[in-house]
Design brief:
single chain, alpha/beta, seven-stranded parallel β-sheet, three-stranded mixed β-sheet, 15% strand, disordered C terminus
Length: 356
């Protein structure tokens, strides 16, 4: 069995679904079920004995310890995190508690469990920590992409909390010998993405006839990684990654945000034209840029390819088409995830009701 934390969130749930589509090895899924944790994403696993779900917090060391003792997983994959930059700017405390304190308590519970394992099981055990390229800070337009040796220079409360968690994982390896692996990924997109992040927000707002809010000039550059490619990379790192190493996971798709929005509009113009015949691009609205907005991220994933043979299967063109089509095909999921808390957040962030 493996233990997955945050397995009802966007990336974690995709990982659980993909894992059980490929393996009979069971998954113990621990998720706090905050606003972004959605069991409806895992509906296809209802009644599947290979999926054991527990609602709980990685910061609850006693609970984690009990789960480890009862289920004795051979690996822990830590997706659990607060992850939205804008939310971290409005209120950083949840990010400090989950991403730093929670990771510390999880590491301590795992270390205690690992220390008591028989030697063969200790040698085979892995703790895989899933992190982000945002810990590296911002790149100038002509700078080379982030490598694993790039120094951390986080610029938002979110990325600072993730950088801190990365350092804790590194320290627990070097000090205590815990067999850890760390992955730092670029921007994910794909099915089951909560509609506060750029791509799902643009799709959902466009279909609802709402404004498509683009920060500043929209020229912030990101590398885009289809979520199922990210899941395959994590499986590969878990399988064969060198203990103590960091692996950057990227899609080789650097694009400015405004280009992403125009691509989504073009796909929707093709797949679900507006009734009035106008393009969805008419809904684009530039809004005030957020504080400290990083201009460019880019991931150099050559280490992962050279050592473990991993490459993304999707181009951005194939991945974004699949993503837009998924949202068109799953309006019920979108409607259910848009709770009152989500509508309140959109109003706080963009200064207009979500129903406007």
């Amino acid at each position: 069995m493996i233990l997955v934390t945050g397995g009802a969130g966007f990336i974690g749930a995709n990982f659980v679904l993909d894992w059980l589509a490929r393996h009979d090895e069971p998954v113990l899924n621990l998720d706090k079920l905050t606003y972004a944790g959605n069991l409806e994403t895992l509906a296809s696993l209802r009644g599947d004995a290979r999926h054991v779900f527990v609602q709980g917090d990685i910061g609850d060391g006693a609970l984690v310890g009990r789960l480890l003792a009862e289920h004795r997983p051979r690996a822990v994959i830590n997706f659990a995190a607060e992850s939205h930059v804008d939310r971290s700017i409005h209120g950083a405390e949840d990010f400090i508690q989950t991403n730093i304190v929670g990771t510390f308590r999880l590491l301590e519970a795992v270390r205690a469990h690992w220390s008591d394992l028989p030697e063969a099981d200790k040698a085979a055990f892995r703790f895989l920590h899933v992190s982000t390229d945002e810990v590296y800070g911002s790149l100038a337009p002509d700078e080379p992409a982030f490598t694993e040796s790039h120094r951390t220079e986080p610029n938002s409360p979110y990325s600072a909390s993730k950088a801190a968690s990365d350092h804790l994982v590194r320290a627990w390896h070097h000090t205590h010998g815990l067999p850890v692996l760390t992955t730092n990924c670029s921007n994910n997109y794909g099915p089951f993405h909560f509609p506060e992040k750029l791509i799902p927000l643009m799709i959902v707002n466009a279909l609802a006839g709402k404004a498509l809010p683009v920060y500043g000039d929209g020229m912030q550059v990101r590398d885009w990684l289809y979520v199922k490619d990210h899941c395959s990379a994590i499986r590969r790192v878990l399988e064969a990654g060198r203990v103590g190493e960091i692996y950057n996971v990227g899609g080789w798709n650097e694009k400015p945000n405004i280009e992403i929005v125009h691509t989504i509009c073009a796909l929707l113009d093709e797949l679900r034209p507006r009734a009035d015949g106008a393009s969805y691009t008419t809904q684009i609205t530039h809004v005030k840029d957020r504080p400290g907005h990083d201009r460019r991220y880019a991931i150099d994933a050559r280490k992962l390819e050279a050592e473990l043979g991993w490459k993304p299967a999707e181009t951005f063109e194939t991945g974004i088409r699949k993503t837009v089509q998924w949202y068109l095909d799953h309006p019920d999921w979108v409607a259910h995830v848009q709770s009152g808390a989500y509508r309140q957040w959109v109003q706080t962030q963009y200064g207009a009701p979500a129903t406007a």
